[in-house]
């Protein structure tokens, strides 16, 4: 069986072949500045070998989804799936030998990296009986195997470096042949680049990248200048699957096209400055007045749970006359619940220290002649948490069930936990991060994510989040509240 494909022609018009079977064993590294034709090269390679071998493309920009229009590739939108779904899909891809494009363009950069890392790791961890040969193409590989930490979280960097290193170093025995493409060799981790035995080097201008490319191609410093003079779509190739000596190749035509392929100039609109100015300013004030993102509706004022207030009132000392002849008269509850409801509804109340809130509470109780001696700071903190979360919006039976569920929850996480429980009991979606941040008294999204991790680890909630940012939170035992 002939396993050669033609990727282009050399300077004399002679076809330049690539041995796909050899490529599976020796891997490929592609480098080229933006606009050098790097993606065009990958597309040519994929199209020519589509009928010969399974193909798996990690596509951060969505450039390769058009392969599905001409071949049997399945497009997987990374942002539509959770981590476990991505891992399960990777296992099925290996099992059924499906050619796929994992499109990540709808995700933020760090989420792209985490999604790709989870996907690659699951491909690598497939059971032995599914180790069929496959080309794994990773475009913009410097994102997924960075030479330096940059701005991404350290755990993300370790995860993605491990996945990429496994692909390039140990993937061959599992049938995975890595093809990595990068704009800059200097930004790509050396232990990933060093595992490739085949190279296609396109135009680059920085000395450090030219020198590394020349070293890989076995060229001296003077010959390295050729790399700077390469035209778009021209590459220097070397390796057992390409050529035993450096060869210049002009990449051939492709059937499919990337979404950003059109770079030609287009005529400007025929309008004078006055007309264009009117067009730019038409209804500008109205558009600027519209919110970019509609804020979530403000929650209604949240009074305290009645069950707590009643239990506290029952523990209050009765008032009797000095002679003891008159029957005991219980201290009136007054309007403690109304006072807490009022305080919880005040702007920024949850951001204040508990000690400050408790002093305000005690002062207002004295001003309004509301007995509060039986409420210490610890009790107040929990009552205020119930007030902030709006537990009183539930019916009495549900409030009693919520109080039971919250009895073992620590004071410092009680308010956001109750907010999640109340939303679940009412059949609503879980509160978003802004709402939880307000109830928790923080402006840090990171603290909210750590809070959710803590609540999940302690078994209070279960969080299901996909790469698109959609989060679903379930509360164990909520059926008793909703019954």
Structure notes:
This protein has 483 residues and is α/β, with parallel strands linked by helices. The protein folds into two domains: 248 residues, Rossmann fold (3-Layer(aba) Sandwich), CATH 3.40.50; 162 residues, no CATH class. 41% of the residues lie in helices and 14% in strands. The chain contains 20 helices and 13 strands. The strands form two sheets. An eleven-stranded mixed sheet has the order 2-1-11-10-9-3-8-7-4-6-5. Strands 12-13 form a two-stranded antiparallel sheet. α3 links the parallel β5 and β6. α3 crosses α4 and α17 packs across α18. The termini are far apart.
The CATH topology label of the largest domain is: Rossmann fold
Annotated CATH architecture of the largest domain: 3-Layer(aba) Sandwich
Main beta sheet strand tally, sense and closure: 11 strands, mixed
Cα Rg: 32 Å
Low-confidence stretches: 294-309, 315-333
The proportion of strand residues reads 5-15%
Number of strands: 13
* Number of individual domains: 2
Q: Report the top-level CATH class of the largest domain.
A: Alpha Beta
Beginning-to-end CA distance, first to last residue: 67 Å
Class based on secondary structure composition and strand pairing: alpha/beta
CATH superfamily of the largest domain, by name, is P-loop containing nucleotide triphosphate hydrolases
| Total of helices | 20
In helices, the fraction of residues equals 40-55%
Query: What do the pLDDT scores average to?
Result: 81
Strand order of the largest sheet: 2-1-11-10-9-3-8-7-4-6-5
Overall spatial form: elongated
């Amino acid at each position: 069986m002939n396993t050669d494909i033609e990727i282009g022609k050399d300077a004399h018009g002679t076809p330049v072949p690539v041995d796909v079977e050899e490529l599976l064993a020796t891997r490929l590294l592609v480098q080229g500045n933006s606009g050098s034709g790097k993606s065009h090269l990958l597309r040519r390679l994929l199209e020519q070998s589509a009928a010969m071998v399974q193909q798996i493309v990690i596509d951060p920009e969505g450039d390769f989804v058009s392969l599905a229009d001409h071949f049997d590739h399945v497009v997987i939108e990374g942002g539509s799936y959770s981590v476990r779904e991505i891992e399960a899909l990777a296992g099925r891809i290996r099992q059924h030998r499906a050619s796929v494009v994992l499109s990540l363009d709808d995700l933020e950069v760090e989420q792209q990296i985490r999604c790709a890392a989870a996907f690659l790791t699951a491909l690598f961890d497939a059971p032995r009986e599914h180790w069929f040969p496959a080309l794994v193409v990773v475009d913009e590989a410097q994102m997924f195997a960075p030479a330096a930490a940059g701005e991404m979280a350290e755990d993300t960097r370790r995860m993605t470096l491990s996945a990429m290193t496994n692909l390039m170093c140990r993937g061959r025995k599992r049938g995975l042949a890595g093809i990595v493409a990068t704009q800059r060799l200097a930004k790509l981790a050396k232990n990933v680049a060093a595992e490739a035995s085949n190279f296609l080097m396109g135009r680059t201008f920085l000395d450090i990248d030219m020198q590394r490319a020349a070293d890989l191609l076995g060229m001296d410093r003077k010959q390295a200048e050729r790399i700077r003079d390469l035209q778009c779509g021209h590459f220097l190739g070397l390796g057992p699957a390409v050529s035993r000596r450096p060869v210049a190749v002009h990449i051939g035509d492709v059937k499919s096209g990337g979404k950003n392929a059109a770079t030609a100039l287009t005529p400007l609109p025929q309008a004078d400055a006055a007309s264009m100015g009117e067009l730019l300013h038409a209804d500008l004030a109205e558009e600027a007045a519209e919110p970019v993102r509609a804020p979530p509706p403000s929650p209604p004022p949240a009074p305290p749970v009645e069950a707590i207030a009643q239990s506290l009132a029952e523990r209050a000392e009765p008032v009797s006359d000095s002679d003891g002849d008159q029957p005991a008269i219980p201290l009136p509850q007054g309007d403690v619940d109304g006072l807490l409801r009022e305080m919880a509804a005040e702007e920024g109340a949850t951001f204040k220290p508990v000690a400050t809130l408790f002093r305000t509470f005690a002062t207002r109780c004295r001003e309004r002649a509301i007995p509060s001696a039986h409420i210490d700071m610890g009790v107040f903190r929990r009552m205020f948490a119930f007030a902030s979360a709006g537990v009183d919006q539930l019916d009495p039976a549900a409030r009693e069930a919520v109080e039971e569920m919250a009895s073992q929850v620590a004071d410092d996480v009680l308010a956001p936990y109750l907010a999640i429980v109340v939303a679940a009991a009412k059949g609503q979606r879980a509160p978003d991060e802004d709402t939880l941040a307000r109830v928790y008294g923080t402006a840090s999204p990171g603290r909210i994510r750590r809070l959710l991790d803590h609540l999940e680890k302690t078994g209070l909630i279960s969080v299901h989040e996909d790469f698109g940012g959609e989060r679903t939170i379930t509360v164990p035992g909520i059926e008793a509240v909703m019954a």
